[in-house]
Amino acid sequence: MTLIGHIIFLLLLQSSVLLAWQDYKDYQVYELTPRDSSEESLLRKLAREKPQWDFLGPIRWHNESTVRVMLPPEEASSLVSLFDSHQLRYRLLIKDLSPLVQAQRAENLRSKQRLQLPHIDVLAAFYTHAEINAYLDSLPERYPKRAQVKQFGWSYERRPLKVLTISNGDGRRNKPVILIDGTVHAREWISPSMALYIIQQLLDNYEGNQELLQDYDWVIMPVVNADGYEYTHSESRYWRKTRKPTTDPDCVGTDINRNFAHEWGHDAGSSSDPCEDIYRGERPFDQPESQVLRDILLQYSPRLKWYLSLHSYGNYFLLPWGYTNNLPENYQDMMDVAEAGAFAIVHSTNGIYSYGSTYYVLYPTSGDTADYALGVANATVAMTMELPAGGFSGFDPWVSHIERLVTESWVGVRAMAAEVIRRYPS
Length: 426
Ligand code: 0X9
Ligand code: ZN
What we know:
This protein is an alpha/beta fold. It has helices at 3-20, 37-49, 76-85, 98-111, 129-142, 190-203, 206-209, 226-234, 288-300, 331-349, 358-361, 369-375, 402-423, and strands at 28-32, 54-55, 67-71, 90-94, 147-154, 160-166, 177-182, 217-221, 304-312, 316-319, 354-357, 381-387. The protein folds into 2 domains: 28-95, Alpha-Beta Plaits, CATH 3.30.70.340; 116-423, Zn peptidases (Aminopeptidase, 3-Layer(aba) Sandwich). The structure holds N~2~-sulfamoyl-L-arginine and zinc ion.
């Protein structure tokens, strides 16, 4: 290519990058506070009827619970008139999301200017799927006896989906397993950071955490929803689902956490509408990313003592079941593990976690990964951890807050791992 050709190419590339990035100009964020259970039901009904309104968390009425909702500019007046007519309590938190989204994007890109792959500093930035893979791939060389990377398959857009196994290198085979995944939901950026922090604790801080690897192996998949996660970096910061087209040409993506085959398809906890954020897919496991996570769960099933899925946000340890208000047989054992995590966190930072069955503590979910891990893959303890909120939507902590969030969460994960190991010795 000529010099001019190069320049034109670079300009085109840059403008396409700029054009592709959704800047959330004039998007608004409201905070809603239901006053009683009828307002709670009304809000849930609105959430179902208005897929263009992005409810950023669970709608609950207990303890002055609030929920944020994000809207494109053309929806704002309809929200206000609907809420006024029903006399719902609401307030405008953010009038224009774009400067905030841009500031965060700039902060993250700036933080990565000195990035020297495959080395990454978890506390210094949020990393892309490709950067995380480069880092994972470098670990077996640095820790030949203790780290192994395996690719289990591909995402819909053909990104390699990788899993790291960590052991203490003593050569003992078939130890019980703690299996952790992250980034089932694309926009929950603290989740991959937490998975990476756990990896660094177990590998780089082996001295401090030896007892967690004495009789157990750890299997960690930092990014399940690779395409969705990439999309939140390159195009649309608040994307949740996968990127596979659906039966509706206008709506892309399925919620991996509604796509698993244990009690899949209940309307109370998932949606058949491809435009909704909790769309369950046409069939269980019709998403390649769900198939990969299923295969990992089944491969480790005979040794699976603790399955932990890292999400955000809300400070919850969520236990099965999501699909029914019945409790699983070993519910109390799982509660004891969750309690160990909650106590450890309260003691260390005063952070407060709620814990219990998803159905009661949060809302019904059907086809989620934790229900499958318990119901089909026979995990002894299956849990979803909703890490703390950050930033202005809850999903978007500032880079400067990563350290506080992951170090606090590690206190909980470490305490729960120790409890699992103590209760279920090999
Ligand atoms: O709704 C979800 O998929 C999870 N919450 S999130 O805000 N991260 O989207 C909760 C799923 C919890 N399910 C089980 N623990 N069974
Ligand atoms: Zn989530």
